[in-house]
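OP here, attaching both records as promised.
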Amino acid sequence: MTTRRRRILRIALPSLLALLLAAFLVGWYLFAGSRARLDGTRQATGLSAAVSIRRDALGTVTIEGKNRTDISYALGYVHAQERFFAMDLMRRMSAGELSALVGPAALKVDLNHRRHRLRAVVEAAYAQMAPAAKHELDRYRDGVNAGLADLRVRPWEYLLLGSQPQPWRSEDSALVIAAMYLDLNSDGRNERELRMAQMRAVLPGSLVDFLLAPDPDWEAPLSGRLSRTPVLPAASVFDLRPLAPTAASTALTATLAPALDAPRPGSNNFAVAGTLTGNGAAMLANDMHLGLRVPNIWFRTRLRYPDAGAPGGQRDVNGVSLPGTPAVIVGSNGQIAWGFTNSYGDWQDWVRVLRDPHDASRYKVPDGWASIETHDEHIRVKGRPDTILKVEDTRWGPIMGQDADGTPLALAWIAGRPHGYNLDLMQLEHTPDVAAALDLAPHLGMPPQNLLVADSHGNIGWTLAGNSIPLRAGIDPLLPSDWSKPGSGWQGWAAAERYPRIENPADGRLWTANNRTVDGDALALLGNGGHDLGARAQQIRDDLRARPSFTPGNLLDIQLDNRAVFLTRWQRLLQHTLAGSTDPALQQLRQLTATWRGRAAVDSVDYRLVRAFRNQVSEAVLAPFAARVKQRYADFSWPGENSAEAAVWTLIHARPPQLLDPRYPDWHALLVDAAKQVTTELGRQPGGLAARSWGERNRADIRHPLSAALPRWLGRHIDMPDQPIPGDNNMPHVAAPGFGASEHLDVAPGHEAEAILNMPGGQSDHPLSPYFGAGHADWANGRPTPLLPGAASHTLTLRPVPEPSPTADARGAATD
C-alpha cells in the first residue's frame, strides 16, 4: 500500500467511524424514543379528575380514577403507548386494510376480509349505539390518540416500515371485536360447510354421516345424552373393492390435515362451587387458546373506581383487557369472576343466490326479485397501485363461493350484522352474582361464547354469551340452502329466555372446552359449527371429579395437565400391531413405545411416536374417500374442525372389507404400513427414532409480526425464546408452535390475593421496555404468577387541563 493511500485511510477512517457512530446514535435515539412514559404528570383534555397509572414489576397496570369514563380514557392512553401497532394490525386485519401498511404480502388476507365490508358494518353499529356507549368509545379513542401523540417518537414498528400511524377512531374498537369474530368463526369463510357439500355431492349421504360422526367415547356435555355410536355403511351403500387403489401424494396428505385435530381457536374454562373451595366462594379457571405472538393479545389490567354496588363502595376489577377496546375481557370484580371459551355453535350459513336468468343483476327473494348491490372496494397496497375488488352483496351477505353445482353462494354471518356489536360486556364489571351475569349474557355484542361465572357467595353458572343466535326455519344449516322461499332462512334472533342455562349443578362442577355442551332443542338452536372431539373436556371433567376440594393452584394443575389419556388406546393398538414383527425398525418402534409414560412432555419420545402412528393410520383410512371427492373438486380438503376419530377408530376395529383402500390386502397390513411410515419419516432424521422427542417438534415459536422481515440474528431479539414446550391437542394443556393458552386465570371472587394469572409475551411490544417479555418465563414453565399487581415500580398521573380563570377570560375579552 502506498504512502498516499495510507494517508487517505488515516483521514477517512475516523470520519467513517464518526458517521457510523452518529447513525447508530440517531437510530438508537429514535428507537428508544418510542418507549411508553412510565412516570411523571401529563395533562389530559376532558378528564373530570386526576387518574393515576401505576405499574408493578410485571408491567401490570393499575388505573385508579373517579369514574369509569375517565378510566376508559386512561386505559386508551396506556394501550396506545404500549401496544398501538398491535391494535392497528387488528383493526386493519378485520377491515381488509393491512396492505396499505405492509405491502403486497398482506393482499390475499385483505381480499378475503374486504368482501365482508366490516368497516361499513361497524360504522353502522357505532351509529346505532346508545349515547352513553358512544361516549365511552369516544373517550377511549381520545385516550388512545393522546397516548400516541405523547410518545416522543412514533412506535418503532412504523419507523421500520417507513409509515406513519393513523389516528384511532371510535368505530375502530368495533373493528377489534370484528377481528375476534374472524379469529373465532373460521376467518369468516365457512369452508367447513362448503367441503361438506362437496362430500355429499360425491359420496352417499350415509357414508358422509359416518365419516363426520361425533365420537361418543370422548364426549363430555354439561347436559343431555351422548351421541349415538356411528353406523357403518353396508357394502350395498359404498364399496371400495372394485375401485382403483388410492395413490399416495403430498397433496392428499395436505387434503387430510384438517381431519387430524389441527389447533383451533378455543379455550378451557371450568368452575367449582363454594362448597369445594374451603372459603365459601366459588372458583373459576380460564385459559383462552389462540395464536400466540409478541406482544400477547391480552393486557394485564387492574381498574379501581367508586361504585356504590361494589364491596366497600370501591370497584376493583382485575383481569386482562383487550387493547383496542375499553373492556376487561375476563377477570374478577370482587363479586363475580368470569371467563369464556369459543362455543363452536353455527354462526354462518351459505345461501344459494338464484339469479334472474334474464337479468343477472337481480336475484330471487321471498317477495320477488331484488337487485344485487355492487361495491368497488379500493384496497391500498403500499408501493403499488390500488387493487380494486368488486363485491356483490345480497340482503343475506356477500357472494363468496359456489355450491357443488356451481350456483353462487352468499354468506350469512352474524359478524356482518351491526346487531352483533356493543359494549355491554363492560357491565360484567358491575354484576353482583351469577344469576345477574347469566341474565346479562344474551345481550352482549360479541362472538357467541360459553360463559362460565363464579361468585363470592359460592354459586356457579353457565350459558351462552352473545346477542346473535339466529332463529332458522326451513333450511339445513349444514348445507347451502335456498332462502328465497317465504319463511326460510334466518327469522330474527333468539330471545334471552331461549338461551340454555345451568346454575349450581348438584356436584358443584362445570366445564367447557369447545365441546358440545347440550343436546336436543338447545343444540338445534345453537347448531354445530365444528365442536371439539371432547377428549379435552372429558379429561378436565374427570380431573375435577377426582378432587374433593380446590385451591387456585389445583385449578392451574388441571390447566397444565399434559397426560395423554386420548392416545393411550392408540399406544395399545401400536403394541398389538407390532407384536409379531421381525422387522428391526418396527421392533425398535415397539420397544420405544412399550413403556408408556403417557405424557406430552418435552422429552417424551413415546408420545411423539404414538401420535405419529395415529396420524399415519388416520390418513391411510380416510385417503380413498378424500381422493374421490378431490377428483371432482380440486380445491377439496377435509372439513375443518371436525375430528374423524370416531370413523377411523370404528373402521380399524370393525375392519369392513368394503371400506378398506384396495392398495392394502387387509386392515392389519394398513396398520403395519402406517407404522413403517413412522419409522421411515422419523427414523431417517439425525439420531433415529430414539432421538425424536416431543419437544423437538413442539416448540414455542412465539414471534413478533415483523421479525420475519429482519435478519435472523436481529429478528430473534423481538421474539420470545423458541424453547420446547409440553402439551398438545386433546388434553387440557393445549400447546403447539405459535399457539396455546394466551393466559391462565384461576380466581375465587373476593379472594383475589390468592389468585393466579399467567400470560406469555409480556405487556409491552418495545424490546427496550422493562416489560417486554415480563412474566413469559413463568408462563412457559408453568409457574404461578399472582393476579394482583405487586408494589408500584412506576407511577404516571394524568391531570385535567386547567380551565382558564374568569379573570383571565375577562382580560382576554378586553384585549379582543
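Record two, same layout:
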Amino acid sequence: MNQIHSFAAWYNALVPHRRKLLIFAVLVLVCCGVMLSRMQVREDIGMILPNNDTELSYSLNLMELAPFSRMVFIQLEAGENTSPQTLFAAAKRLRSALPDNLTPCLPDNVLPDPKAFVRILPSLADQAVIDSLEKQLAEHELDTVMRDNYLALFNASSFVSKRFIQYDPFHLLSPLYELLRSFRVAKDVTVQQGVLSKDDGRKLLLLVKSSVAPTDSGNAELMLAGISKVLGDTVTGDISTTVFSGHQFAVENARTIKQDLRVVLTVSLVGLLAIFFVFIRSRDILWVAAVPGVVLLVASSVLAVTQSVVSSITLGFGAVLLGISVDFALHVYFAFRYSSCTPAKTLAEVGRPVMFGGITSLAAFGALAFSAMPGIQQLAYFGIVGLCCGLVLALVILPHCLVPCSGVETVCSRVPNQFGSSISYDGEREWNVPLCIVTCCLLAGALFYGGHVQMDNKLRSLSVFPKALLQAENTIRQEWGGKNESAIFFAEGTTQEEALKRGEELRVYLRKHGVMKLAYSLSTVLPPEEKRAANRSRWNSFAASQLSAMEQAVLHAQAKYGFSSHAFAPFFQWMTISPADIGLEDLNAADIGGISSLLYAEKDGRQYVQTLVPDLPEIRDLARSSELPEGIYFYSARNLGEQLGKAIEQDFRLFVGLAFASMAVLMLLFFRHIGLTLLAILPLCTGLTFLLCVMRVTGTAFNLFSVAALPLIIGLAADYGIFVVNACKEGVEHGTLRAVLVSGLTTVSGFGALVFAEHPAMYSLGITVLLGVGAAIPAALFLVPMLYRSKSCRSVR
C-alpha cells in the first residue's frame, strides 16, 4: 500500500508544476540531440566476439595482420581476341595506375639480380643444403657443367644467362631456387612482370596490399571505387576481370545494415502509428506516439556519450526498443481511459504492476550485460537506458499529459473489458484443475521435443555474404591455389630477431609433428641470427673444400671454350670472401620481398613472423598443446568458430538461467503467492516452448543473436503475465486486457520489422522474439484467465 500511496502522492505533488515539468523534458531532449552528434557507428566483427578469453582476444587483434587480410586480388583473363602480350600490357597499366593506398606485392623487375641471390645463400646453407650441393657436385662432371654454360650463352635469354653464369657457373644457387619454389601454392603458376601467370599467360593475378583496415567500411568503399575506376580506364577489350578482397564483405555488411536501418525503422514506425490509430482514437495519441521516439533519442544519446564506438547492429535494435518502450505508456493510457477513479488513484492502481513489469524487463536486459560479447553488452545497456526512460515517461510525465476519463472520486469497481467479459476477484480463488493438467502435459511434451535445437557457431551466419562475392572468392581459390582454409601462427617479439627466433622454434615444433611440409613461413628464408651465423660458417667450410676443383674446371673451360680470364671473377669473389649477414632488405633486393611483405608484420612496436598452415584439426590440436613454444599465437576461423560456439552455449545457459530466475523471484515478491507466480510465468513458458518447437521443425539453429533474444522473450512475456494476473487478483481491470493486446502488438511490430532486415544478425534477433512473444500474447490473454477463475465472477461471455 505504501507504493500505491507513493504513486498518488508523487502525481499530486507534480500537478502544480506541469508546465515546468514539460519544459524540463524538452530541455533534456535538446541536450540529448546535442550528445547524439558525438556518436561513432561502426560494424566491427570484434563487437560480436567473446572478450573474456585473453588469448583469443589477442589473436583477434592480430587478425588484421594476417597475410591476406588487407590483400586485394585482381584477376585478368584474356578473351578470344586478346593475346597474352596484350594482357600483360593491361596488367602493367593497371599496376602503374593503382591509388596510393594500394601497393603491389610482387616486384616488376624483369631481370633478377644474381648478386643478391649469392648474398643470401650462405646464411641459408644449413646441413641439408650443404649435403644437397655436395651430392650435386659429385653427380655432375664439372667440365660437363661448364660446357652447358657455354651452350647456354647462345639461346634467347643469353643476357640473363651470362649474368647468372658469371656468379654461379656450377649452379650452387639451385637449393635456393628450390626453396623459393616451395612457396608456390600451385605448380602451374609462374611469376612474370610482377603478376602471377598461368595458362600460357592467358590468366594473370595481381596481388595488391592495401593500407585500409579490412573493418574500415568507409575507406574500404572509397578504395574499391578507386579500383573499379582504374579497371575501367586501363583494362579494355574482351579482357574479363575478377576482384576479390575481404574489404568487400565489410562494405556489403555496412551497406546492408544502413539499408536495413532505414527499412526497419520505417516499418516499425508505420506499424506503431497504425496500431495507435486503431486503438487510440483521441488526441492523446500524440503523447503516446511520442514516447518511443523520445526513448530512442535518449538511449542513443547515452550510448554516444558512454561508448567510444556504437555497433550498427545495436542501433538496428532501436526498432525493437520502439515497440517495447511504449508498453508502459499504453498501460497507463488505457488505465486513465477506462478508469472511473481520479488520475492520482488510477496512477496508484496501475503504477505498481507497471513498475514491476519494468523491473522484470530490466532484469531480462540485465542478463545480457553478463555476456562475453561487447556487442551484446552494448545492446543490454541500450535496452536498459531505454526501458528506464520509458518508465519515467509513463509514470511521471505522461499522466500529466493525458485527459482522464473522470475526475470525480469513485469506488474503483470492476468494469467491462474489451473482450466482452469482466474480471473480478472476491477473495476465493478457483483453479481450472483439468485444464492446468492438460496445459502442463502439453508444455512438457513440447519442451522435450524442442529441447534438442543445435547451436550455430559459424561466423558467416552473423554477417552478409553475397553470392557474387562468394563466387569471386571461389574463383580465386580454384584458379590460383589455396583451396583449403588457412590458419596462422604469429611468432611475437619485441625485436625482429626475437620474433625470428620464436618463429624458428615454431618451425622446429611443427617439423617434429610432421606438419612443417604443409607450412609457409618466413623462417624458411630468414632464420634467426644465431642459425644464420652457423650456416655461414658451414658455407665457408664447404667453399674451401670445393674451391680447388672448381678452379681447375674453370681453367680447363677457358682453354677449351675461350672464356676470358675474368669471366668468373664474381663467382670466385663470392667463394673466397667471408659472407655478410642478411636481413629483410636483402630479401627485397633479391625480389623475394613478396614473401617478406606477406609473412612479416609490425604493430604497436612489436614484430611478428607469420606461418601459414592449413586449418586442419590436427594443427588446431597442436596450437592448443602445452608444448607450443612461448610467444606463439594462433588464429583460425574454425578455431574461432569453436570458441564462439562455446561462448554461445555459455551465454544460452547464463541468459536463460539469470532471466528466468530473476523473473521468478520478482514475481514471487510481487504476488507473494506461489500459485499466482506460476500462473504469471505461464506466458513466457509458452513463448519459449513454441519457439523451440518451431526451430526444431524448421531445422533452425541458435546463433549468437537468437540466444541474446531469449531474455527479451522472458522479460516481455513475464510483463504480460504480471498485468493479467494482477488484474484478476485485484478485481480492477482498468483496460488491462486491451493494454496487453496493444502492447503485444507494438512489440510484435518492433520485432516484426526486423524480419524485413537482410542482415542475418538483425533478422535472427527479430524472428526469435517474434515467435516467442507471438505465442506468449494469446497465452496471457486467453489461457491465463481460463486457468485462474473466481468463484463469484468467472469470465462470462
